Amino acid sequence: MEAAALAYLAAGIGAGLASIGAGIGIGRLASSSMDGAARQPEVTDDIRGLMIISAALIEGVALFALIICLLLTIPILG
Question: What is the DSSP code string of 23-70?
Fold first, then answer.
């Protein structure tokens, strides 16, 4: 295989793994938040706020990983 094809393959696999990781992380976060809100309904607003901040951080890491995957293909093409 050519180097460009391998770079695209690696970027695709990396992007897929980053997306899967973000999906699993947000799923676990939402599950724990719903469980906590069901157990203590009086702190639901606090849990919701923390969940939104945590989800944003997880998405930020996933976006960072996707950008790195795309940047890995630039030296091969340039």
Answer: HHHHHHHHHHHHHHHHH-GGGHHHHHHHHHHHHHHHHHHHHHHHHHHH
CA dihedral sign of residues 36, 54, 51, 15: negative
Asked whether the beta carbons of 22 and 58 are under 8 A apart, the reply is yes
* 27 phi, psi to nearest 5 deg: -65, -45
Predicted TM-score (pTM) of the model is: 0.80
- What is the CB neighbour count within 10 angstroms for residue 67? 12
| Contact partners, residue 37, CB within 8 Å, separation at least 6 | 43, 44, 47, 48
Q: Tens digits of per-residue pLDDT, 46-66? A: 999 999 999 999 999 999 998
